Amino acid sequence: MATLGVESYKKKLSITKKAMTDNKTESQFSTVVYGELRDIFKSQNWRIREQKEGRSNRKLLTKEEVWKTALGLESEDQLDQLLAEAAIHTPTHGQITFLLAKCMFYDGSTWKEAIKNFWFPPDSLEPFKKQSLAELKDLKKHDEDRLALKLLREHLPVEIKDYDDEAEIIFPYPAIAEDGSDGIVPCSIPVPRKLINIAGLLEKKEYQRKSDKNYRNTVTYRMRTDCNEIIKLAAVACDMSATEFVEALALETSQLMVRSKIKQFEKGAEPFIPSGGGVDDLGDAGFEDAINEFFGKHLYMVLCGRYSSGETKGFFPAQRYVSPKKGVHHTSGGKWFPEDEAEKDLKFDDDTTRETALKWIYHMIQDTQKRVKMWTERENAAKDMLGVILEAPEDADFAKICNDHWENYIQPTRKKAKADGDAMEPAS
Q1: Average pLDDT of the segment spanning 91-104
Q2: How many helices (H) and strands (E) does the chain have?
C-alpha cells in the first residue's frame, strides 16, 4: 500500500487542523485511540533500547503492524490521519513529543536519526520537532544535574536528598552543646544552583591539562568599563597582555578575596544558633553567612588541592606567613610604592616643644617595655616548661604536657599579640 506523500500529507494536515479548529468537523478518532497511538510510540522506544543494549531479539514494529495489528485501522491513510489529529490534540501531542525526546536522549541520536524508527515521513512529524528538541534539552539538563549531585556527595562532607523536582543538601555546622562541649548540627537548604554548576571541579586532585588545545579557552562576559580600563593600563605597566594579567590575578590574588570573604562570613554567622530546623533556619540571623562560610572554606581547600602545585602553580596558602614563590609568582619579593620616590618630610617640625618630644620618647619607652615584658614572660614560661619536661618520668604523656602548654599559654599570648597588632599578616 502506498505511503502518503509529503505534499499530500502537508495538505491533509492543514485541512485537518483548520477543520478541527473551526469545529466544522469532528475527530475521526477518540482520545482512547490517541492514547493507543502514544503507547505504540512508547513500545517502539523500548524495542529500540532493548536492541541496542542486547537484551532482546524483538524486531521493531513496522508501519503495517502498527495500523493493522496494533491499532486495528483499515489503511495507512487512516494511520496518517490519526497522526494529523494527534498533532493538534494538546495532551497527545505533548506525550508523543516527550517520547521522541526520550528516544533521542537514551540513544544519543539526532532528530533525523530518531524518526527513522517511527513510521512517518519527516514532514509528517515536523509538528512534534520543536517541542521534542526542547524536551531533549530539559532531559539532558536533568541528567547533568543528577550527575552534579553525585559529585557533590563524593567531594563535599554533605548529605543530599534527591526528590523528583528538587534536591536538598544537608551540611554539618559546628555548634555548642548544652553542656558546653563542641557539637555538630545538621543544617539543610535546597541545593544552590551555583554549587551544581561547579560540581565537576570539586575533586581535590591536582589539575592537569588534557592537551595543548585547551591551554586557553574563550571566556565571554561583560565587565564594568572602568575595570576593563584598569586591566588594560595595569597589563601594559607589567609588560603583559590583558589575558596574561587576568590569569595572574586569578592565580595569585584570588586567594586574598576568598580568605577575606570567608572571614566576613565567619563574623556574620556569629548570631546564628543552629537548631537543625532545616530550611526553617533560612530566615534566622546569620544563617546565610553560615552557609557561605561552610562551603567557602571547603571550596578554598579545593583551590589549594587543585591549583597550588603541578602545572598551575597558583598561590593558595594554607598557613600564615607564607609568601609567593620567587621566580614563579609575579607578586613575590619587595613592592614599590610611589612614596618611595617622594621627597621625605622631616618627622618633627621646627615648632616641636619639649613637651611634644617627651610624650614621643615616653611612648616609645612604654611600647618597648611592653614588648620586653611580653618576650620575658615567654622566655620564663619556656624555661619553666623546660624544667617540667626534664623532670617528667620516662613514661609521661609528653604530648599532653606540650599540648597543655600550647593551649594554655602560647595560643592565648599569640592571640593577644595579634589583637595588639604585633602579629599582622604581611601583604602578599
Answers
A1: 85
A2: 15, 3
Using CA atoms, how far apart are residues 82 and 92, in angstroms rounded to an integer?
11
The answer to whether 320 and 222 are in contact (CB under 8 A) is: no
Q: Is the pLDDT of residue 6 over 50?
A: no
Nearest-angstrom CA–CA distance, 105 and 116: 15
With cut-offs at 50, 70 and 90, classify the pLDDT of residue 277: low
Given its phi and psi angles, is residue 310 left (phi above 0), alpha (psi -120 to 50 degrees) or beta? Answer: left
Q: What angle do CA 240, 242, 246 make, to 5 degrees?
A: 100
pTM above 0.85, yes or no: no
Amino acid at 78: Q
Q: Where are the alpha helices (DSSP H) in 54-187?
A: 63-64, 76-88, 90-107, 111-115, 122-155
Is residue 44 within 8 A of residue 156, CB to CB? The reply is no
Q: What is the mean pLDDT of residues 325-335?
A: 88
The domain limits of the chain are 6-142, 156-205+222-330, 370-428
pLDDT for residue 12 is more than 70: no
Angle between helices 31-53 and 90-107 (to 10 degrees): 0
DSSP, res 57: -
Q: How far apart are the C-alpha atoms of 176 and 274, rounded to whole Å?
A: 9
- Sign of the Cα pseudo-torsion (366, 368, 370, 372, in order): negative
Span 175-188, average pLDDT? 73
Which amino acid would we find at residue 276?
G
Beta-carbon contacts of 264 under 8 Å, excluding residues fewer than 6 positions away, are: 289
Residue of 193, 164, 309 whose CA lies nearest to 251: 309
Q: State mean pLDDT over 94-103.
A: 85
Length of the chain, in residues: 428
Q: Of 327, 331, 333, 305, give the one whose Cα is nearest residue 318.
A: 305
pLDDT tier for residue 295 given thresholds of 50, 70 and 90 = very high
Are 76 and 3 contacting, i.e. CB atoms less than 8 angstroms apart?
yes
